[in-house]
Amino acid sequence: MKQELFKTRYTKYGHGFDVRATYEQLPLQGFWTWVTGKSGNKNAPKAAKETLLKPWQLFLQISWGYAVFFAAVLLGNEILQSELHWIAKVILSIPLMCMVVNRQRGLLHTFHYTIHGAGIANKKLAKFVCKWVLSMPILHTPWNNYMKLHVGEHHSVNTFCTDKDVDLQFMTSHGFYKGMSETEYWTKLVVAPFHPMRIYEHIKFRLEVCFVNTDRHEKVSRAIYWVLLLTAVYLSGYFTPFALYYLLPILLITQFSSWIQHVTEHLWFAENSEGLPKYIFYGSLSWGRFFGRPYPIGHTGWSFAWRVVKWGLGTLFIDIPLRVFSFMQDLPSHDFHHRSPGVNFWSIAPERAANEGLVSRFGPMTETWSMTESFLILRDHLCRNESDPFGIVTWYQSNKQQLETKPAREAAAVEAAA
Q: Which UniProt keywords apply (predicted)?
């Protein structure tokens, strides 16, 4: 049952209400769930195991990614061999590369969920698919390495967002720290991923984790895979478009795509100075990062028409490009993944919506409705020492006695056991 105490919380920079609710009267609700990243699901929550994919569903998810890769190389070859002006070739290549990045990172996130046990029930098949179909073709971290770095250290309630967390180490390497100036923050936000050393480190990490710092069977199988693949591509005569439309996105463009969302993925460098219970503190470090602006309900005539035009332009030129290039698949609801890592990515948005307002050991859910809003709360945290953007500390201190009642503890225990 929904509880007023656990209603969703917002920042001072946002609209202060659920923007997705203003879309409820529009047609094509599935499309708006994809655009915004937030579902309007009002059904009861499912158990995590109920959200797992059948093997054919997983392969369907993977297959369209491979279709994009093949199509990009073939179409890219046509572009390169055409007599078009080089500017036209660049313009035509941009959407191809964006879609390749989308599906390369899509495979990465499918791997990510599968390694959490949130892909398919058959663990042997899951491990085989992760190695040969999801990880190896995109030079992604092998299974055992990823289990340690991500599942063991990033997701642990004891090391999450600490200096032992590889994701926070990534932010440190890009020059971010608590107490930085605002000028430094905005400058590094824009230029840090383009620094030649960061690009070099990114490529070096990918190659080392795939071919050097991993298990012997991974080194051997990956070396054989890539030798055979590169040989086949070379003999086919498609090496140049393959390098440009497949390898370049993997080794370079993906880094920029990932950076846009990674920088606001969590409240980096946070400290539990107010003594929050560890799970509430853990929950406070992530939030739903949704896209959109209120649909202009309550307006008529020219006022309505003008507001709809502005709303539509924002959807077309801000929300959709960000969803395609950077926030693909589950990423707007990544906060819920940290609360319930066993929920499959096909179901993450509706299950997050189903769990909104329910009693949770992680505290109430929180959300922003633009990239700017997330950038501002991270700036406030790192530069102004304002580290409670959703008022979770105040919420806990005001409701501490109620949160410690037997029914609240029992509900949290049920959630933990799910």
A: Membrane, Transmembrane, Transmembrane helix
Q: What is the mean pLDDT of residues 107-130?
A: 94
Task: Give residue for tokens 């001072």.
Answer: 12
Give the Cα separation of 34 and 61 in Å (integer): 15
Written as six digits, the tokens of 339 are 């609360």
What is the number of alpha carbons within 13 Å of residue 94 lying toward its C-beta?
6
Give the number of C-alpha atoms closer than 13 A to the C-alpha of residue 257, restricted to the C-beta side.
27
The burial class, CB within 10 Å (0-12 / 13-18 / 19+), for 2 is exposed
User: Which residues, other chains included, contact 300 with Cβ-Cβ below 8 Å and sequence gap of 6+?
Assistant: none
Cα 333 to Cα 288: distance, rounded to the nearest angstrom? 5
pTM for the structure as a whole:
0.92
Instruction: Give, for 289, the enclosing helix (H) or strand (E).
Output: strand 288-289
Residues 192-202 pLDDT 10s: 999 999 999 99
Identify the DSSP state of 360.
Answer: -
The rounded distance, in Å, linking the Cα atoms of 215 and 220 is 9
Half-sphere exposure of 25 (CA within 13 A, CB side): 6
pLDDT band at 405 (very low <50, low <70, confident <90, very high): confident
DSSP state of 366: B
**What's the CA gap between 102 and 253, in Å, rounded?**
10
Q: Which of 260, 267, 328 is nearest to 110 (CA)?
A: 328
On whether the CB atoms of residues 22 and 276 are closer than 8 A, the answer is no
Q: Which residues contact 202 (CB under 8 A, 6 or more apart)?
A: 251, 255
Reduce the DSSP state of residue 211 to 3 states and report it.
helix
Report the number of distinct structural domains present in the chain.
Answer: 1
**166 and 151 Cβ atoms separated by less than 8 Å:** no
Give SS3 for 288: strand
Sequence-distant contacts of 238-245: CB under 8 A, at least 24 apart = 238/73, 238/74, 238/77, 240/77, 240/80, 241/73, 241/74, 241/76, 241/77, 241/80, 242/73, 244/76, 244/80, 244/93, 245/72, 245/73, 245/76, 245/93, 245/96, 245/97, 245/100
**Both tokens of residue 119?**
């892909």
Distance CA 320, CA 314 (A): 9
Q: Which domain holds residue 281?
A: 4-417
Residue 341, judged by CB atoms within 10 A of its CB (0-12, 13-18, 19+), counts as middle
Name 200's Cβ contacts closer than 8 Å, sequence gap at least 6: none
